[in-house]
């Protein structure tokens, strides 16, 4: 045979098998039948992409209960050369499990990944008010840790599927405080031109403010509001050099090739000491972006034509 | 002779000779030795231009005491095809004159052009509190009217030079309420490309608001303030169809070819149901326009380059 | 006689009989049967009030075509001790009259009060494009002036009723450019407590801006918009000391005893170097003021109670 | 004995001894010699206060590198009846320790409290790029866990003092990514009247926005900026019911008894569906709050006097 088989693509994700991240990757049609590479943390996943070991990485970016995933946001803010190319939602639910024979009233220490722990906080406060929390590395590791004794806990919060793979006592299910809890994942690749607009797009940015006062944030938000652009995520993150200095992670409805979004990006670039464009990509929910008619593309195009005519000295129509 | 003499240019102005308008036209180097055409009102001056009888018209547009000259502003708002090409300032001062033999204490009726009257209002209130006002057509006509008896008045407000041309008793001089009173004139031609920027330019606009509430005016003003552009004139004028509907006449510091001004004009065009661009032209005072460094041309150019790179998928510098 | 007759009240107005101002005064029930005092100008009318010769003065403040009446606005801005206590609307219409035997095609000079002239400007441009304008002191004086020869004109713009009182040729009627033209008058008294709110009130203010840039006007307008208050009049007036410095005359929907208006007034007072409160009074059109529910009085009261509780350390409800 | 000994006060804090939280409590003069009650998590500390087992609880609220402590912020947002009464700063620094004999190049799994982990992320990426993270319950538990084998790790991130209490190999010190890293703690009591202003105060709030768009956040921020109030903390937190709905945790410079702050609180209360006032208390750094003169207390008082005079009909001064 003279023709080489097409190279398989590699996708990094937070493993092991069974995590919510794997469930997100499972939603990517192009990833089926390709190489899936489990990694230990977000930094490793993004390094895989930047250094060519992977073509893309699936990482959790926001949770409906916990908010932005801070390690992800901080990594995206500081590592150049990356771009988000897709968004995926995974519904999250939790169970409380323990070694066989354990009873709920015996539990004093609960192993749980911190994000999972936060999402079950209300339930725990009601049913185990005196519990102590031991953080686990993942929703799988929490359960494994109590089974093999590597975590000093007598119960674990885990994803529901865990009881099918391991011999565990199900102490309680549906313990998440919010029935609609969902985690948002993004697929990240090396810098690439954004895919064309679909009408149902999202644009992600990280913006540093020029000065540390409320006025600067006002000015940032106005760049969107004065162009009819809605924000679906706004998360402050400390820059880290001193208390009171923040960068903002934003998801804005629309695509960089939409006139109003391009105009907003220009305004932000002129104003901010540092803007990271993370990408324009189709929304997971495929919901068409609505905006006031006055911010439609043709309004921008018409205004530019008008301005050109004025400068040329053409009579007005 | 084989060579045709160059055609003389014609300039319309509010006559007769001796008006402040003539003094403004006197400041225009290109108008020297050309044809000066005195007219009776602003409408006639602008018709001369629009219908080709004149190349340009000098008209008063604003007075430091009285504000915008409303007939001028309304004419510019409604007559398409005109453009301001120059700005000129004339210092204004007034005298009170009467037929020979008249004494100040005898005066009961004062003839005066309404704008001149308003500028001497304080002085009249102090010295002639019971006077009655008879409007005159100009600062020359007021004095002539009391001399020939065509105006039922016993004194007139006029420009100081009047006593050199007519036999009049000078009852008081320097009667203007403000020593720094000045009238601003503009030279208006048919639509033409704006002259290149000089760094000391002004841009004049008339803008109708989309709705009749304060929010719309806020939005208009923000188009300038968010781009570091100062306004030197802001005059509301009723659109005239009902109480409470206004258009706004604006003078903004800068030139349509300045990036920040072009961007502001685009924003206004997208937002307003009707914008009249009256022109970008050198300021009478030749004062260089100051603006924050963040609104400099190269900041706009750099941002556009950045945006192009993002869309193309180029790695960030 | 033991019983003193009640003192008659005196009302000053711009005379003579037959002016639009008299028609406005005619709408005031309390003025019927009282003393009406015709005066020559707005300054005289306001002096009558300030010096006790009159109890109140009726003056024109705004015209739907011409905008604010500048002499009125400037007088109210500079004379302390006055307050608006009522508002009245008079529909305005105009006729063109001349000495018997005159034909329209013979007219070359038109006598007219400047405001009336401006309101017929379109009609004159169409039917008498070459006319010259001679200003008259009032809509009555214009007609009398051509009859007695005291005004050098061959036609006059006047109010329709003029032909019932004088022998004049009616050259044209309905010559006003706008069928809905109306003039707004206010009744002005010495400083007095505002009448209680009616639900259909208006508050008039004159505000100087702290600095001469657009940002200050933005801040003024936000005092209203952030409290759901609509503006029905916004008129810039030069302060008069130099070009580019303005004060603003505002009519805002609502009453000083409405919580949202009181709060806005506090904000304006803190921000402006000079605020003149002209009064809160019932609207001429008796239209109930609409505003978003979130700016209702009880929302303000509830917030104050909440704040008091916080400071006192009371447990939250 | 006739005299009762004064009751000892009880303070809850995140134990065990040696945590940064204990170092914060150590800064409270009133807590010396009183009862210190170590607890396992923030929820337990706040329950102690609410249920009367403790008089106050010391909890971490913000870290200069990691931002707001989300479990603390979410607990304060949802538990009524609490108030912040003091603020304390603790400088944070970290070491990497291991069982005696371990070498840095042997380390593959690092135990660390998630917040500590995030603060050493850069150092770990450089020196241990392939490491895996095992979360520990505290900066003390991480080290104990590797000593007693309860955590499956071969090194631990801990506070520097750890090596004085336990036999550990110091693999690296000063591994925090930021030399100025500091954690901010607050002392929380049951609802009580705020202590009087000191001039160097801070006010903490949690505010829900009326709608899920940028405009609502703009309006919130304007409540501060239009009164000259600076924000030192602004942290978004998901409300948790669905993606895209946020509450905001704010620290504002000033005290509830400052006029400008009281006025801002009133504005926020009127606008927000839910405001939690967490308290006004002295700043840890004792820095006097600076603000523009136009927002001084006497400006507010003067404006209220003026308004009262207007309503009473008093002549203006």
Automatic annotation (TrEMBL), chains A, B, C, D:
The keyword Zinc does not apply. Pfam families: ACT, PDT. Residues 10-190 form the Prephenate dehydratase domain. The gene is pheA. GO terms for cellular component: cytoplasm. One of its GO terms (molecular function) is prephenate dehydratase activity. InterPro entries: ACT-like_dom_sf, ACT_dom, Chor_mutase/pphenate_deHydtase, Preph_deHydtase. Its EC number is 4.2.1.51. One of its GO terms (biological process) is L-phenylalanine biosynthetic process. It catalyses: prephenate + H(+) = 3-phenylpyruvate + CO2 + H2O. This is Prephenate dehydratase.
